Amino acid sequence: MYKKILTIAVLMALFFVYGIDKVSALSQVGATASFVLGQPNLNGCATGPNGWSYEKSIGINGTQVSVFDGKLVVPSGNENRVLIYNSIPTQNYVSADVVVGGSTTCSRYPSWDGSELLSTPLGVAYGGNNFLISEAYSNRISVYSHGFPTSNGQIPDVVIGQPERSDSYKSANQGLTVGANTLSLPFSMQIVNGKLIVADRGNNRILIYNSVPTTNNASADIVIGQPNTTSNTVNNGGISASSLNAARGYILMEPSFTFLILEITAY
């Protein structure tokens, strides 16, 4: 059976942390971690109510962990929160400086009763003083237009993929048909030279916005993996160098700006 393999296991492991409730710093392949976040020690694996802490616990699920301007940003996808450390921690079980989304109790799925809540945040991006969080199960991207959040539960300024931030607008493709302004299971993101690049997994495409949107429901300028912005067919036109299937992430290699795209099912 033919598969398009656009990356390898090593790159995939570097890009995502799968199903592990720890984030460890590695200096070389096979090295022993010096400290751990999300657990009280390197042997811990507690999740949920057992020892749960709003500022310390991490529930990772296919998450894009990143460092921006010296800050460590960890989306806790299983707990609908993003933890921001103002500097990279140097000891076990450090509290995050800022937490957005989730709730102050051990609730993985808080009720949809506030615009400050997040739904399965999996990707983060930063550039041009914009901090973005992709919310896979609300099919949207939240934008903080004035830099990193500075207080717990801070409300985003702009939403991409939906007309507004509310319980009424969280369906894939806004409950309608796919378009330049819609999203379905957005995963990883990156801001490069002012352009926002988004892996729109459920629509089997990569979207490029020529600038980070400043208003709700903005449309993408370029689409990769589909012939136009109103198509989302798996491997549209058949498996080829121009088609995609469930594009979950990518790595943009500088200075040539070469794409390595991760497809979960490419056959």
UniProtKB/TrEMBL annotation:
InterPro entries for the chain: 6-blade_b-propeller_TolB-like (IPR011042)
Name it. Answer: NHL repeat containing protein
Which organism is the protein's source? Candidatus Dojkabacteria bacterium CG_4_10_14_0_2_um_filter_Dojkabacteria_WS6_41_15
Q: What lineage, starting at the top, does this entry show?
A: Bacteria, Candidatus Dojkabacteria
